[in-house]
Amino acid sequence: MLSALPEWNLFPAVLRGKIRLQDSEVTNPIAVGDRVRYEIDGEPSMENPASIMEVLPRKNYVIRKSTNLSHQAHIIAANLDKAYIIVTLQFPHIKLPFLDRILVTCEVYNVPAAIVLNKMDLLREVCPEQIADFHRIYDSTGYQILEISAKTGEGVDALRQDCSNRICLFSGESGVGKSSIIKALDPSLDPKIGDISIAHLQGKHTTSLYEMYNISSDGFIIDSPGLRGFGLVDVEKEEVATYFPEMLRASENCRFTPCTHTHEPGCAVKAAVEAGAISPERYSSYLGMLDEEKKYR
Ligand code: GDP
Ligand code: ZN
User: Is the CB of 175 under 6 A from ligand 1?
Assistant: First the structure.
């Protein structure tokens, strides 16, 4: 379900002290994409900013653990209609466990995710067999895969159509072509300069690097910088597999519930991996995440 898109109208606003202290579980009380109730006397300006009285309940959000030791978490963005995880296969070399971790985070927080495979022009040239391999691994997940080239424009119209009338998160590690894609979607935007960004209006105390753009096809893009990896917050070990859609589907036929899909007899997930219906790469990401859950508990 899509929520009505807001008007694009930037003005300065400050948080009331009360909101700042409300939730000590997170390092930031407000995130890009939040909807708020605010008050203002007259015209808002830097000297007369609006006061944010209340952050309205979020329909969803994505979050990152601040560090492995701290229990605090950082909200990356809120109220998302869709997340596009931008990857390429070479330059930079793709790290599958990293992609899987982001996909799991989107599942955990109820944000529909799609994979954008960029630099298709280059990949067809240098590693066509790796493209086929990527499909072998991810087709069975059910995630939408958009193949594009920000350089040649291939697939850009399809992506623009897909993200129009939505509030979207664009996430990807540095070098995959995120800025080039945003510029290809709307040439009037320059993500590297970011002169229309909200962040600039936040004053010099801002630590947030998340920016929202209004693209001409009527969508909003939240640009999140090269994410080092999301820490999984609030996920029990038994739950991890339920956030791998293809494992969740297969697990209906496991002999035991719950099943960790590691040592149990009659495990349908392991059988699917052996039969090639679930890729060993995805399964290996899953095992890696189980291990980490153990470590940080
Ligand atoms: P970002 O760090 O993710 O924002 O990546 P940039 O948009 O700055 O792009 C990183 C590099 O990849 C630049 O040299 C771009 O010219 C190049 N690049 C981006 N998209 C494509 C593409 O579709 N094809 C090719 N061949 N190069 C691309
Ligand atoms: Zn099982």
Answer: yes
What pTM was estimated for this model as a whole?
Answer: 0.88
CATH number at residue 122: 3.40.50.300
pLDDT digits 0-9 by tens, 162-202: 999 899 999 888 889 999 999 999 988 877 643 334 444 44
Q: Quick: pLDDT tens for 237-292.
A: 889 999 999 999 999 999 999 999 999 999 999 999 999 999 999 999 999 988 87
Q: Is the CB of 177 under 6 A from ligand 1?
A: yes
Residue 4 belongs to some domain of the structure: no
Buried b (16+ CB within 10 A) or exposed e, 181-200: bbbbbbeebebeebebbbee
Distance CA 111, CA 167 (A): 11
Query: How many domains does the structure of the chain reveal?
Result: 3
Q: For residues 178 and 144, state if they share a domain.
A: yes
Q: Are residues 75 and 178 in the same domain?
A: yes
List Cβ neighbours of 179 (8 Å cut-off, separation of 6 or more).
191, 192
Query: Do 217 and 82 reside in the same domain of the chain?
Result: yes
- Asked if 52 contacts 14 with a C-beta cutoff of 8 angstroms, the reply is yes
CB of residue 88 inside a 6 A radius of ligand 1:
no
